[in-house]
UniProtKB/TrEMBL annotation:
This is Tubulin-folding cofactor B. It is found in: Cytoplasm. One of its GO terms (cellular component) is microtubule plus-end. It comes from Culex pipiens (House mosquito). GO terms for molecular function: alpha-tubulin binding; microtubule plus-end binding. Residues 1-15 have a biased composition (Basic and acidic residues). InterPro entries: CAP-Gly_dom_sf (IPR036859), CAP-Gly_domain (IPR000938), TBCB_Ubl (IPR045172), Ubiquitin-like_dom (IPR000626), Ubiquitin-like_domsf (IPR029071). Residues 1-33 are annotated as: Disordered. Belongs to the TBCB family.
């Protein structure tokens, strides 16, 4: 009899980690989708703090915080009120310092698709801000404006406000004339050599002697030149390079007559000799 053929029925042993077959499989790298490799994912905080500048005025920039999930089209809409540009026409460029990083030109992409980080600057270029300069102005003549019923002038006139309030204007005119009369009387008393007391806003009361009365070159109105007893002035008796009287540095000032009171004001300390 022929010997029966015996088949190897032993089950195949599983591959172990150290087996050559397993090592060969482990060495294979997964395939990468080209499209996915090109996508840039920006992780981290969803908010980013940036500066926004615009072509209308390069010297001005605004610091703002925006979500990286904003689409570029939505981002442009948020830039309209602070730049004066139009979302439909504006161009955006991303800068790090003075270096151009990217152009934000894909309206459907989120802001985080670009390498945007805190402290970077988005520059807005647009012609929208300049359109108004070329628009013809609408102007009214004085007669046309006077005839308008809804104008500010007509409102003031109807309600007797401001210069259209005859009683109030007469009162103000009377006060002005009275002030002029008081200043004229003070000016008459303010003779050169007279002692005086000067009171001005933000300064202590100062005693001194009137050294000059008259006009100053390049300044309207009448002035009194005063030499103070203490170095509490602002000049040495000169103004704009022209000398009007002699005194030491910081001992002189030119003041309006309304700030001066003429009277018997002896220098402080003169009466000390009367006491023993």
């Amino acid at each position: 009899h022929r010997a029966a053929e015996v088949k190897n029925t032993h089950p195949r042993e599983p591959e172990t980690i150290g087996s050559p077959s397993a090592s060969k499989s482990a060495g294979k790298k997964p395939k990468t989708c080209p499209e996915m490799a090109a996508v840039q994912v920006i992780s981290g905080n969803d908010m980013v703090k940036i500066n926004v500048s615009n072509s209308h005025n390069d010297a001005v920039s605004f610091e703002r915080r925006y979500s990286k999930s904003l689409k570029i089209s939505e981002f442009k809409s948020k830039l309209e009120p602070i730049t004066g540009g139009s979302a439909a026409t504006m161009k955006l460029e991303l800068f790090s310092g003075d270096r151009l990083v990217a152009r934000l030109d894909e309206n459907d992409h989120p802001l985080g698709r670009y390498p945007i980080e805190d402290g970077m600057r988005v520059h807005v270029t647009d012609n929208f801000a300049f359109v108004q300069e070329n628009v013809a102005k609408f102007e009214l003549s004085q007669d046309e404006y006077d005839s308008k019923q809804d104008s500010v002038r007509n409102y003031l006139r109807r309600n007797k406000l401001g210069k259209y309030n005859e009683e109030e204007m007469a009162k103000l005119e009377e006060e002005r004339k009275q002030q002029e009369a008081e200043e004229a009387a003070k000016l008459e008393l303010a003779t050169v050599g007279a002692r005086c007391k000067v009171t001005t806003k933000g300064q202590p009361t100062r005693l001194g002697t009137i050294m000059y009365k008259g006009e100053l070159e390049g300044k309207p109105g009448m002035f009194l030149g005063v030499r103070f007893d203490e170095p509490l002035g602002v000049n040495d008796g000169s103004s704009n390079g022209k000398r009007y009287f002699e005194c030491g540095p910081k001992y002189g000032s030119f003041v309006k007559v309304s700030a001066v009171e003429v009277g018997d004001f002896p220098p402080e300390g003169d009466d000390l000799d009367d006491e023993l």
